[in-house]
Amino acid sequence: MMFQSRQIGDVKVTRILEYTGPTHAPGFLLPDLETEALAANADWLAPNHWVPHMNKLMLTVQLWVVHAGPHVIVVDTGVGNAKPRSGIARMHMLNTLVPEWMDAAGARPDQVTHVALTHLHIDHVGWCTRWQDGRWVPTFPNATYYLPQDDFLFCESGRNKVEGMDVFGDAFFDSVMPIVDAGLAKMLVPGDEIADCLLSEPAPGHSPGQVTYRVRSRGEEAIFSGDVLHSAMQVARPEINSAYCIWADQARQTRFALLDAAARREALILPVHFGAPYCGYARRQGEGFRFEPAVW
Q1: Under DSSP, is residue 211 helix (H, G, I), strand (E, B) or coil?
Q2: pTM for this model (two decimals)
Q3: 216 contacts: CB under 8 Å, gap ≥ 6
């Protein structure tokens, strides 16, 4: 389904699908994972997280919409339409129905009150802007956009061009800076709370300023985990980084901490890139964890 909703106490959470498919070779996305590890876990990985006969990992791009009282919050904003991404064919000049699906889910662009970004990578900021009258303009004109400050400063200073893989790229200029120029941006530091319901927590490693967002209501909890996890395989093997993690050791520490907290608190993990059913739980298994898919 293109969108699905569930309750976290009094808070309604809806996932909006931008695209999903077997897009990445395991040796590229998870370069430190042994080749035999996927086959050894095929009983729960295939076909939603790994397609064995293609040897490709399923990767999704999705947006999360939170309805909390009068607030309509978008957590991460995908790739976006009409964005020139010539080096990444699967993202180049998309033309999807994300705005229509958001409208159907009760999140028309002018209804959105807050945009909460976990980090500023190219596939998390795209729908911050849309092309109109020859320029990029804010997609959500009545929202405050929360930008992780350390990611913003990292890009603004140009460090993304010299410190490893540049996964911010042109998105910083066509999807982030127009928000700043429009006066809709607010710099976020870990510990800030958005709309009295989303608590930001530090999650550096994948990017310098990545955060997660925790929502709690009536004894239930969920964690919008950004890219702390790219694949469900990383729940079982949290020491395995994705190829896009800029600070490897810090990324591992962040992943262990998130999984431990989620398991202890029985919190639902809401990532951006998992295959169906797109979210789930970390359960303790011996000294490690296992992934338990959520039921919609």
Answers
A1: strand
A2: 0.96
A3: 8, 9, 199
